[in-house]
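Project standup — Tuesday

K.O.: blocked on the structure for the chain from last sprint. Re-posting the sequence here as requested.
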Amino acid sequence: MSSFIRRGCASAAVVVITGAWAVGLDSSLPAVAQSAGAVAVQLSAPATARVGDTVAVAVTTTRAVDVAAFEVPVLVDASAGQVEGSDTNVSGVPHREPMSFIDANGGVLGAYTPVGRGATTASLGTVYVRLTAPGRVELRTGPVVLADASGARLGVSSQPAVATIDVLTETGAASPATFAAPVIGWDQPDGAAGMDAFATLAEARSQWQTSRLAESACAGTAAAQAGGCIDIADVQKTVAVDGPAIAPVSADAPTGNSLLAANTFTVTSEGDEPDANVNDGLCASSAPGNPCTLRAAIMQSNNDLAQPTTINFNI
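H.V.: unblocked you, prediction finished:
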């Protein structure tokens, strides 16, 4: 699959985002049971680039499977690169509702299918990474979750996907430096009980977001209180059982995430204060001066599920 490089991009990119993610580093990935038919995820990135370039990293599966929902962490050393955005919509594939986010370790390419049906395709989408230091930069996937249209989890290979980019200086000189991607663990044990279907899609999205803000798939949510964990498969299961709360997008509608967004908020503060009034349609936190925080923007997004939301950053 081809990749492209966008040179000289500003660091404040349009990002479709619904949550924040923070993870602790771990020395190894957890052992995950897998069948002979387990699906692996691949990363495809340019072999070379220059400092300041933003590269497109294609995320695909090793074979076409019926994927309706997915979470794929794409990790990069924060001193060498930064995930700036993602796009989960693929031409010819039913509209996917993005559930993607960014943190210092990278970002997660995620989505579910509100029309309740997946697509037999190998393409999951694209993650955009801005390169900030010369040297050999590694990109690595974290724990992956794939689910079909019913919300059933698909067997996924425990081996992470890895891609490396030789990043040259702005003048084209090579550097001997190396930047290994962080390795993260997953606190959801293999076979752990999930919440499965929630009462509403809005509740599933909210609980999924809360668990990510709590830095854990098994903490900070009603799922944890019930002894379970939540991942994107639980969100998709809710769609399959209860139907989407978001109106399906017609086949003729544009496929780019930014073109679908009806709400746009710009985060102007690094604070974590909540939104002062989620019913006014404005991203204005309770902090002095009412700046727009990421938490406030997420709260506004979750309060209006009729359309995707675009969140910009200007910090």
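K.O.: great, moving the ticket to review. Residues 1-36, 245-261 have pLDDT under 50 and may be disordered. The radius of gyration is 19 Å.
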